């Protein structure tokens, strides 16, 4: 690995942020058509003792503002007592998209496919370079907050390159129940920063254009858990009831056009061969069921109940020890944060019981006697097999 160009994490605009101090900084990334500077606001907090530097970024996709709510919560959290190191908080990375309520930049480029960027490239590439030099270039670790793409929602999950010890440490300590293995797409912030020596964890949860209370709570808890792991705060971590390392995922796609009835919500677990959704015509006839090709957990799903062939319906992550997870989950009280986030996310989709015939299907008969829509499509099993993944 090449030696990284590092900038001192406590010096901004040529001035030092002293131990125990916080500072608001404006990072210029571009200029408007009228020649006015376009800055990204950054909040820097320095602990009393030396320690690692970690960044938390949000809205790298300009419409994914759940993370912006998280960062704002971290800024004003009076209980967050940073004892060591430096915390860099960036509420909105893609200010261009954010100003237009859009995922992309005005030139339709995806900023999260432009890292590490270049000085002479496109608007996206130049913006990426500033972020890479000024934020990643000052950090030892990073957490990048995302949501599902438009018309979808995600149950809170983290994604990291588990072959990288630092990224694995971040993922495990964050404390999400669902952890997904993956380096991320080419030229994404996560992949490029981790490759350059600054391990980055991706957090995916909820929907675009919203700040969802239980998502914010899960993310704030996760960031604090990581800060404790890095010995930057003293507040003890909140342990998750279980943690699943998901190595195989699949988007279950519609085979017919029509109206969807969901039989699972975000975060639900489903046994192989059991129905996850039914597609029927607008009068409720000619129904066709989608079944789970393996024992799995619903990582994400569409929130739009109208569908057509090939459209993604449910993003399922494979679970190997289903019985154990079922046992733990059945014991969780309704007031548990895991159950609260499950209930909150289920409120944006209508989940119904499958019909008696559908419910009686078991894995055996479903796989031998009738076609399984989900299993019939042979495609690469990876987190990024859909182009608009988070
Ligand atoms: Zn995203």
TrEMBL record:
- Tell me the domain of life: Bacteria
User: Per the UniProt record, which residue ranges are transmembrane?
Assistant: 80-98
Annotated region Disordered: the residues are 330-390
The protein's name is Succinylglutamate desuccinylase / Aspartoacylase family protein
Q: Which cofactor does it need?
A: Zn(2+)
Which InterPro entries would you find in this protein's record? AstE_AspA_cat, N-alpha-Ac-DABA-like, N-alpha-Ac-DABA_deacetylase
What are the entry keywords? Hydrolase, Membrane, Metal-binding, Transmembrane, Transmembrane helix, Zinc
CDD domains cross-referenced by the UniProt entry:
M14_ASTE_ASPA-like
Question: Where in this chain does the record put each Succinylglutamate desuccinylase/Aspartoacylase catalytic domain?
Answer: 50-227
Residue stretches of biased makeup (Basic and acidic residues):
330-342
- Protein's organism: Stratiformator vulcanicus
Q: Which Gene Ontology terms cover its molecular function?
A: hydrolase activity, acting on carbon-nitrogen (but not peptide) bonds, in linear amides; hydrolase activity, acting on ester bonds; metal ion binding
Q: Per its UniProt record, what SUPFAM superfamilies does this chain match?
A: Zn-dependent exopeptidases (SSF53187)
Pfam families assigned: AstE_AspA_cat
Q: Does the keyword Oxidoreductase apply?
A: no
């Amino acid at each position: 690995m090449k030696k990284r160009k590092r900038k001192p994490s406590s010096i901004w605009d040529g001035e030092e942020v002293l131990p125990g101090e916080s500072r608001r900084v404006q990072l210029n990334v571009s200029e408007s058509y009228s020649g006015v500077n376009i800055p990204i606001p950054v909040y820097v907090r320095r602990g009393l003792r030396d320690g690692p530097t970690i960044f938390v970024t949000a809205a790298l996709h300009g419409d994914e503002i759940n993370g912006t709510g998280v960062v704002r919560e971290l800024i004003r959290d009076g209980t967050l007592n940073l004892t060591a190191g430096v915390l860099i908080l960036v509420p909105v990375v893609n200010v261009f998209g954010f100003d237009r309520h859009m995922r992309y930049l005005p030139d339709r480029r995806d900023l999260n496919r432009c890292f590490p960027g270049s000085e002479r490239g496109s608007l996206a590439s130049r913006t990426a370079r500033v972020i890479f030099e000024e934020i990643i270039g000052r950090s030892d670790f990073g957490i990048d907050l995302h949501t599902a793409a438009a018309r979808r929602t995600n149950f809170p999950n983290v994604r990291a390159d588990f072959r990288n010890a630092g990224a694995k440490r971040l993922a495990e300590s964050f404390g999400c129940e669902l952890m997904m293995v993956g380096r991320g797409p080419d030229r994404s912030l996560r992949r490029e920063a981790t490759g350059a020596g600054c391990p980055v964890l991706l957090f995916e949860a909820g929907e675009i254009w919203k700040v969802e209370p239980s998502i914010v709570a899960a993310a704030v808890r996760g960031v604090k858990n990581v800060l404790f792991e890095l010995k930057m705060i003293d507040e003890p971590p909140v342990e998750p009831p279980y943690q699943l390392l998901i190595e195989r995922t699949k988007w279950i796609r519609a085979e017919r056009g029509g109206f969807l009835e969901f039989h699972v919500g975000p975060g639900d677990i489903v046994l192989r061969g059991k129905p996850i959704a039914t597609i029927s015509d607008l009068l409720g006839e000619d129904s066709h069921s989608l079944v789970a090709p393996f024992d799995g957990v619903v990582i994400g799903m569409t929130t739009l109940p109208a569908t057509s062939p090939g459209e993604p319906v449910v993003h399922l992550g494979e679970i190997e020890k289903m019985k154990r997870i079922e046992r733990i989950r059945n014991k969780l009280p309704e007031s548990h944060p895991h159950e609260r986030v499950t209930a909150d996310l289920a409120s944006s989709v209508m989940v119904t019981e499958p019909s008696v015939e559908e419910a009686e299907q078991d894995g055996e008969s479903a796989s031998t006697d009738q076609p399984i829509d989900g299993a019939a499509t042979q495609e690469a099993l990876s987190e990024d097999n859909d182009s608009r993944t988070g």
